[in-house]
Amino acid sequence: MKYVYFFGEGKADGTGEMKDLLGGKGAGLAEMTRIGLPVPAGFTITTETCDYYLKHGKKYPKKLKGEVLKSITRLEKLTRKKLGNDQDPLLVSVRSGSARSMPGMMETILNLGLNEKSVDGLAKTTGNERFAYDAYRRFVQMYSTVVIGLPKEDLEARLRRVKKKLGVTDDTQVTAQGWKQLVGEYKAYFKEKTQAEFPEDPEEQLWGAIGAVFESWMGEKAVTYRRVEKITGLLGTAVNVVQMVFGNTGEESGTGVCFTRDPSTGERTFFGDFLLNAQGEDVVAGIRTPMHLIELKDRMPKVYKQLERVREKLEKHYRDMQDMEFTVETGKLYMLQTRTGKRSPAAAFRIAVDMADEGLIKVEEALERISPEDIERLFYPVLDPKVARSDLSHRKIANGINAVPGAAVGKAVFTAEEAEQWAAKGEKVILVRRETSPEDVGGMYVAQGILTATGGKTSHAAVVARGWGKCCIVGAEQIDIVAEAKKMSVNGHVVHEGEWITLDGGDGSVYSGQIDLVRPEPPKAYETLMKWADKHRKIGVRTNADTPQDARAARKMGAEGIGLCRTEHMFFKDFEHPEKSAERQQAIQEMILADNSESRRKALDKLLPFQRRDFVGIFKAMDGLPVTIRLIDPPLHEFVPHDPAKQEELAKRIGISPEAVARRVEQLHETNPMLGHRGGRLAITYPEILEMQVRAIIEAAIDCQNNKIKVLPEIMIPLTLDKKEFKILEEATRRVANAIIFQSKVKLEYLVGTMIELPRAALLADQIAQVAEFFSFGTNDLTQTTMGLSRDDAGRFLPVYVDQQKAAIFKDDPFQTLDVEGVGMLIRWAIERGRKTRPKLKVGICGEHGGDAESVKFCHRVGMNYVSASPFRVPIARLAAAQAVIESKKKRKK
Ligand code: PEP
Ligand code: MG
């Protein structure tokens, strides 16, 4: 096994493909070296080594030492410098880098190789003693904190003391002598704490640094980040040992981060931040607010031109937007990193579509590049345009850099811990920090939005928030944050912890108070890409909608019909005339409380016009598209009050005794209502409910048809057990429907089918299909009944089952992503058997899984006709359905 991969002077052992082994950074450095870009030489120790080290009680594999020493010798030859040399020393950086980007979550040590001798060598070759000792004190500080674990604050206190003694406030004002003195103090502190001298031997330094980087893979912040980002299955981090180049040797030097396209909008412009006379960490940490990349054009025209060529080359090479780090050392450009750039959802669409139009990628690739999260986040809220401009300007308190678009409303909190605590109580918070650091990631994750006083678009806060599509404003420099006092002040306005603020990540405005948000209109690139998706996919996409409003919203999202209309939702609320909601509720409650079929019918007669009107609204909204309407499903106790006061009120309203109400509620009580008197079982015992609902559906359909609105009703029976049960209900349905159709003398087509929600129904699907014209898999219940997991209560322990650090029994929550192995087997069986009986059997899914990308892909593979998703998940299903086609094509090719 090879543990170390060298790169330098146009040659590299590794390639850009070897991300898993070399990490993203290592693979990028190797690839950039290969294609002739200016990369400082170095070597990468593989992620497999990290895995070995962590699994073997922090021991390295035997062969590693030899390989590292050989690489060091090679590096020394190539650079004509030697580690620890007192004339012209080689210095290296030791950096982490895993296969998935984890910005700032692991450790880095710079300027390694400095000691009492080589610091003089560095001073000589640079002719700058101050610079040499500045580098040295940075190294001693990093080594002490990162490798040894000494508290950063203690070292920083010593830095402050030295500055105070020198009477200066800024680091740049500290003299060579000052830095020398600080190094002395750091070392004394080191000895006091560790009972050992600070290591002088560069080799010892190197092994310390390598171990520290490996160990940072299991550091708390890295583990948290992997948890929230759901990063699993990686071996560990690689270690990159690279010749140091300095961006802080003077005004001819600098360091920056740039993107080949704008990561917020996706526009094809060169975009980035740059700091003169600074080290790379200064840009990412967001401590100083950088200048725009374009200013480099004036300051260093040659370097800028060269960088533009690098941009072009890298984008062509990788065929995707790149995020690059570079350093200029006295006029010479060095590329330190390239990786696929994180981007806002809008940018993701624009870049994919533009690159396909430019011929850089194929349409299929463009489709593959969009993730379900991109779509979800595209519809993140913006400020309601109806809010008056005068109101906005009145409330505006600050302005920052618009790092990640979208808007957010929340209560201001000033530490990440508080953000987590408040959020755990169900509060919406905005995390306000001077700058964020990797330790803040938990608080950043739960916050609605993030606001920092410093930093640019590539600061830690911006990068992390962008990855999540979370509203983020950085560099709001007017804001003075006093975290200890839990407040911030800006232009005389004070915001205390818990007070509402609103962020507009679109333009970087910060407002006091709560401002209404709305979902935005999607960009043009979205429409284009979704059209491409529709062209590619084979499977239909419908929606779950219970109201005309939802139906209309879903059509806008591209729904091609309704796959599930839960009629019982209409019993609770009148969406078009809210004032009539009480009347509906009363009618349904009367129906439930009725103790004979005659009074039950009377109550149902009151409900009939409501339901009919709802169906007319839905049919109109769907305008000729198929609409699957499910008959009443939940157990009746869900519709009646359980507390005595409400029962008394109900009794009064419908003119019976409170005791009678209580008795009936008691009768309806079930120990296991989810397995109880619900679904088709209700219609078996109370056929008049079915009759009323079928009447409402068919009369509404006829009404529409008479008004030249095409309708395709599909009547669906829930929770079917077998053919016998289904047949009784199917016949009852047809009896009512056909009589009405016959009387009205119109020609109306309709289907009668069933949900498959019980294993028994799935197993006996061949028989059910003799009667049913369609199947719709109710995978919420089918998951519940197959796995024996209560969909209402399993949340108490499921997180442990899903957590990859804990029990890791499931990869995903089975109520969110279909359990393809178990529940999926029943689905396959049911489709196969059902279609044996009825080859044209229409099959769909209407559980929550219909809006989950992975589950949609499964539905495609098993040959369903359509999936049905809630309105805002319809585009996710459309895209996933197209991706499923592309994936199967690829598989077949293999
Ligand atoms: C299901 O069980 O998957 C389903 C769609 O029905 P409901 O969620 O209404 O039980
Ligand atoms: Mg169900």
Descriptive overview:
There is one protein chain. The protein is α/β, with parallel strands linked by helices and about 900 residues long. Helices cover about 45% and strands about 15% of the residues. It has 36 helices and 34 strands. The chain has an eight-stranded mixed sheet with strand order 15-25-24-17-18-19-20-16. Strands 27-28-29-30-31-32-33-34 form an eight-stranded parallel beta barrel, surrounded by six helices. The protein has a six-stranded antiparallel sheet with strand order 2-1-3-8-6-7, with helices on both faces. The mean pLDDT is about 95. The site of magnesium ion has 5 residues, from helix 32. Phosphoenolpyruvate binds near residues 633, 780 and 847.
How much strand?
15-25%
Termini separation (Å)? 28 Å
The low-pLDDT segments are none
| Relative helix content | 40-55%
The rounded Rg comes to 33 Å
Principal-axis shape: elongated
- The tally of helices reads 36
Structural class: alpha/beta
Tell me the total number of β-strands: 34
Bound molecules: phosphoenolpyruvate, magnesium ion
